[in-house]
Amino acid sequence: MPTFEIGDVDFLLDGRPHQVISGALHYFRVHPEQWADRIRKARLMGLNTIETYVAWNFHAPERGRFDLDGPRDLGRFLDLVAAEGMHAIVRPGPYICAEWDGGGLPGWLLADPEVGVRRHEPRYLAAIAQYYDQLLPLVAERQVTRGGPVIAVQVENEYGAYGDDQDYLRALIAMNRERGIEVPLLSCDQADDAMQARGSVPELHRTVTFGSRAKERLDLLRRHQPTGPLMCMEFWNGWFDSWGQHHHVAPAETNAQDLDDLLAMGASVNLYMFHGGTNFGFTGGANDKGTYLPITTSYDYDAPLAEHGAVTAKWHAMREVISRYAPVPDELPADPAPAPELTVDLDRRLPLADALPALGEPAAWDHLPTTDELGHWTGFTLYRTEVTAEDRVLTLAEVRDRALVALDGEPVGVLSRTEHSRTIALPARAGELTLLLEDQGRVNYGPRIGEAKGLIGPARTATRELTDWTVTPLRLDAVEPALAALLDAAPAVAAGTPVAGPAFLRGTFPADAGADHFLRTDGWGKGLVWVNGFLLGRYWSAGPTATLYVPGPLLRSGDNEVVVLELHGAEGARVAFAAGPDLGSSEV
Ligand code: GLA
């Protein structure tokens, strides 16, 4: 059987020096019917390896559930990598960062404040053991030593940026080895002496993450690890976008030059990202380095392969660089055809208030609960209470992360964590106060990993603390039959009528099965979009993204359905599909 080992200066594949030229492609950010196409385009660029994280909470959305089917079928993904003749690197965390909700750590695990986060704590380790029991058999049986594609597994992620608990790292190593992982175990850390020192142990082979100045960064890694292959585990050839900020781009020529410098040193590389994909549904994470910044739905990343699978100038530039170091196939992928352009009238309108019976069950509380206390790990939650004319103002300890405030259904304003606003004046009248709370994504980096979501009390007014609440977690992960039935029965609205939210709108449009679409979101405020019942994700006029990518496999021939939940208001009850993506304006 083949072997893959750490040599004195190189990785050794069957005993011979081997330069890993890898690209990151997260199966959980790509429609499963497109996995093969994206992997093939990686091989055609000259890559010999595909790297993927594993997002624990994607497989385990609830305590006691573990899913490996359809979009979660990691075994099938790895088999497709093997079928392309490529190797795989798997990074199963348990923490992955990755601009993913909570960095992959499940909300249901960390809701218990007794459970440790990213340290040697028995309850935390017991949960990881169970996760590994469910996941690692499929990785172990696909190791290169057993005839499969997997050449290495990474433990934790940039741990030196968070902690220094070596017992924790050693427990993770032992749990991997006990479950049959025999290929090299790696760590990755930023190009920072303190982080490199804290983030690894001698049983792990160290790698480094950076986006430029390859020689300087690899020299730093060398100081912490005198022998063995040099590897940049994340060569940041682009960057992620946050709502309300500009769209990030990284020039292809600069990336190509840095890649050339790195490969010329004989180092191995994993391009982060080769293909970014999409944060579908409620899967995007957030950063909070003093200001909370949620991640956009698009995870295009300005990567060589665009979000919709098109090769870019960067793909060509990198292919040319790689061809100086490794054989590159002659074949070039075809450009995708422009997507259909059409306008769709949304002819059904259902106010959110009328849809509530289909979305969740209200429960009474004698204090203000977090959404973690409700066992509701993502998305939207409706909080209700009664106020009097004397209350006059509402102030919360914290809002995680954004709430639409209304009195008897009339909009009062918005509380936003990003804007550090947690106090709002109320009209001087009695009525039902509602806060439609949006969890905009769990923080995926830094000390706020693991914090609870929801409204954080106490909730005070000018005269008292509000303690009697009725709270409804909303099921919005798919257009469920009960919601579909209410939409069927909703009154028709005239084409183009302005939309007052929060309300659902629905329309139908013709398509060819399998054709990619790009839904323009300009003219709309903030909300969610489903196509044929699948939650594409969030849109927001704050930008930068102005289109949502609709993967072709979601479309069928004949009638297709689009449902929008608009929170604020829209110019007109219609949506448009565009020929290509519009990811917003960039700084350069
Ligand atoms: C770090 C993390 C990745 C990702 C990138 C930024 O390198 O390891 O998971 O968050 O930053 O995209």
Automatic annotation (TrEMBL):
Boundaries of every Beta-galactosidase galactose-binding domain copy: 502-560
GO BP field: carbohydrate metabolic process
Ranges where the Beta-galactosidase 1-like first all-beta domain occurs: 371-474
An MF annotation (GO) of this entry: beta-galactosidase activity
Domain Glycoside hydrolase 35 catalytic: 11-324
UniProt keyword Chloroplast, yes or no: no
Keywords: Glycosidase, Hydrolase
Record has Oxidoreductase as a keyword: no
Entry annotation: catalytic residues: E158, E234
Membership in a protein family: Belongs to the glycosyl hydrolase 35 family.
The name this protein goes by in its record: Beta-galactosidase
Protein species of origin: Cellulomonas pakistanensis
